[in-house]
Write a structure and sequence with these properties.
Shape: globular
CATH topology of the domain at 245-356: Dna Ligase, domain 1
Helix content: 25-40%
Low-confidence stretches: 346-357
CATH superfamily of the domain at 245-356: DNA polymerase, Y-family, little finger domain
Mean pLDDT: 89
Radius of gyration: 22 Å
Strand content: 15-25%
Strand order of the largest sheet: 5-6-1-7-8
Order of helices and strands: EHEEHHEHEEHEHEHHHHEHEEHEE
Number of strands: 13
Structural class: alpha+beta
Largest sheet: 5 strands, mixed
Length: 357
């Protein structure tokens, strides 16, 4: 019989904002939002806990955030600095175990069933990791400890910031009984509304719904959600996850109205993506274009061809050709993005998708 797994989910607390507060003493204790200007359609990339008290959240338009919190300190993001700190965090995690699966710059799973520190208690491992992160970076992290990834991720968000929540096997059922249906992996606001419409308010309510009723409501998610409602998640921590896509996009302060300007922007973005493919020794078969018009309608176009390439001029030409398949020549555009998909080549430990900032 295989030993019971010990999984930890580490989630840095308000990562970007915390880095800014650490490096600028004048921001400490103040409501801080990292992101673009409220005058140029900027959005909140991260908010300090002081800002969250006013209702400021990530992905919120910065203009709205500024209205909610008139004292908000807005800081332009410095992703090079955040990436450098993320690498230091991941180095600490890999000092403990090679089984580290990053999800983004600020969170990762670890399987510490067996670990380099020879520590049998996952709780002690999590405490040591948190201490090392604070001592080496001056930042706090929250940790969730559980028998599987699903429960560990929920646990890490249970007592933020600087939290540590442990769900032992004996406590799994008690913990599940407390959770709303929104806690289920894959259930966003739209799916949650559908589930509540058929009487499912709590996570455990999934267990009592007939299979055909659940399947009509959520389709292929039904089996997965049913398993999770019992706390059953057999997914392993996978340290070497291949890149699935790389993309770059820009939202413009003023709508683009001239097709020549749009072509130049698409070429610029495409060359950025091609350069990233080069750095990672990857090739792409598919090029995608994302375009958002001034009225917020968003369209995508894609082109797939063999052999896979990362040659900048070819990649840019294909992306510009996709632009011609839109109505951009006749409609103002507020956002453009270029992506590379169907990747091949070297695989590196990284989240499934990277968006170049």
């Amino acid at each position: 019989m295989e030993p019971l797994r010990r999984i930890i989910h580490i989630d840095m607390d308000a990562f970007y904002a915390s880095v800014e507060q650490r490096d600028d003493p004048s921001l400490r204790g103040k409501p801080v939002a990292v992101g673009g200007s409220p005058q140029s359609r900027g959005v909140v990339a991260a908010a300090s806990y002081e800002a969250r008290a006013f209702g400021v959240r990530s992905a919120m338009p910065m203009a709205r955030a500024a209205r909610l919190c008139p004292e908000l300190r807005i800081v332009r993001p410095d992703f090079a600095r955040y990436r450098a700190d993320s690498q230091r965090v991941m180095a600490i995690l890999r000092d403990c175990t090679p089984l580290v699966e990053p999800l983004s710059l600020d969170e990762a799973y670890l399987d510490v069933t067996e670990n380099n520190w020879g520590e049998p208690l996952a709780t002690n491992v999590a405490k040591r990791i948190k201490e090392m992160i604070f001592e080496n970076l001056g930042l706090t992290a929250s940790a969730g400890v559980a028998p599987n990834k699903f429960l560990a991720k929920i646990a890490s968000g249970w007592k933020k910031p600087d939290g540590l929540t442990v769900i032992s096997p004996a406590r799994v059922e008690h913990f599940l009984q407390q959770l709303p249906v929104e806690a289920l992996w894959g259930v966003g606001p739209v799916t949650a509304r559908k589930l509540k419409a058929i009487g499912i308010e709590r996570l455990v309510d999934i267990r009592d719904i007939k299979e055909d009723t659940l399947r009509k409501c959520v389709g292929s998610l039904a089996d997965w959600l049913k398993r999770l409602s019992y706390g059953d998640d057999t997914r392993e921590v996978k340290p070497d996850r291949p890149w699935k896509s790389i993309s770059a996009e820009t939202t413009y302060a003023e709508d683009l109205e001239r097709i020549g300007e749009m072509r130049a922007e698409v070429e610029r973005l495409a060359r950025r993506v091609a350069a990233s493919l080069e750095r990672k020794n990857l090739y792409a078969r598919s090029v995608t274009l994302k375009l958002r018009y001034a009225d917020f309608k968003t369209v995508t176009r894609s082109h797939t061809a063999d052999p896979a390439t990362r040659q900048p001029s070819e990649f840019a030409a294909r992306a510009v050709a996709l632009l011609e398949r839109t109505e951009a020549a006749r409609r103002p555009v507020r956002l453009l993005g270029v992506g590379a998909h169907d990747l091949s080549g070297a695989e590196v430990p990284h989240p499934e998708q990277l968006r170049l900032e």
